[in-house]
Amino acid sequence: MAKVIQSIRGMHDILPDQSPVWNYLESTIRDLFIQYGYRELRTPVLESTSLFSRSIGEVTDIVEKEMYSFDDRNGDNLSLRPECTASCVRAGIQHGLLYNQQQRIWYIGPMFRHERPQKGRYRQFYQAGIETFGIPGPDIDAEVIAVSARLWKRLGLKNVELQINSLGSNEARNNYREVLINYLKSHEDQLGEEEKRRMLSNPLRVLDSKNPAIADIIKAAPQLLDYLDEESAAHFERLQQLLNEMAIPFVINTRLVRGLDYYCRTVFEWVTTELGSQGTICAGGRYDGLVEQLGGKATPGFGFAMGLERILLLLEEQAISTPKQSPQLYVVMQGEAAETAGFKLTERLRDELPDLRIVNNTSGGSFKSQMKRADKSGAEFAIILGDNELAEGNVSVKPLRSNEAQSQIALLELKDHLNKIIRTGKNHG
Length: 429
Ligand code: ATP
Ligand code: MG
Prior knowledge:
Largest sheet: 8 strands, mixed
Bound molecules: adenosine-5'-triphosphate, magnesium ion
Strand content: 15-25%
Strand order of the largest sheet: 1-5-6-11-10-9-7-8
Structural class: alpha+beta
Distance between the termini: 42 Å
Helix content: 25-40%
């Protein structure tokens, strides 16, 4: 037998049994974003590699070691997108969506990073996110954070903590950078090779290090918040005020610097302790310099990205039930005449009750085997069409999930009867 080909390590199929919860999460996210007036932007999964090296920064985990990059047949160096902010900015500049206007954008889709696969960390994973452009104030920071807060509420997730911090202006960050380098230098003997290298090229990233050996050094490091410029301090203050007024609890985490280079002022993460070291389910912040860095006219930006797999893991961890998508009706048909009548009937029902999920039996089979399939389909009821009943204008409706008796219903009354016994609507059943 030929060797069976497997999916790529760290890249997973979402199987039919798993897709209902994915669909539920994605549609909840979509509805929420649209509720706040955000509009979807879909960008290609492949971009020029330079888009990411210019935006995310050369000295980052992503660009240094996580990207799927290759030369295509023309010799152009391309990368599978590791995140979507850069693509949104690229598209925004390219199509003139950014300059001198306000944009509220959202996206959803697969991202690719060559990381060590583990629970909550994959090589193809899904992000949904928001990017806003042209809005410099803390009002939009608060709004975007409120969108994420409302998602947890809508999903019923508990125990996710909002952590916020401010990175200040570029100037304040540069001042702090010097202070931090000096501090880290004084502890150089305790740093690992990677941290020593980063200390000079991108010292804030050292604060982001997950190396437990230097946890104490990081803890005692000088704090960026103490070096904030006045405007950034006021911005941060107003954000906190708005969050308080909207009753969104938060903590200030002075070590929160985010992995990516382009952030300034507000950064935030939603963190849970229930997913091990993959505890960040949503992360974002302000990136006022990014549009200009990618060749557009200076435009402020603020956004977030959340990891859908981690949200799903948390839903599972917290045993939160989500809607099923199994059919409500399975139609059992015995004989050719019944099959003909059944196909006509179910098309009519789909006209009349578009939210009803109906599966027709196919390939015939004995009554017993059809009922087995009906049960396996997860349907609530079997509709049974037999030649004798049809001759009298009736069908049988048999409850599959309770011990209630089967009933005979006149074909003409079937629609009303179904309306009574079945909760319709796309998120029920
Ligand atoms: P981490 O510190 O966990 O590596 P990150 O800082 O690299 O995260 P971001 O680039 O900010 O992550 O991406 C935003 C969100 O996307 C993360 O908070 C997480 O929920 C999700 N995410 C990032 N990388 C992965 C991955 N490899 N697999 C699954 N989800 C991911
Ligand atoms: Mg990462």
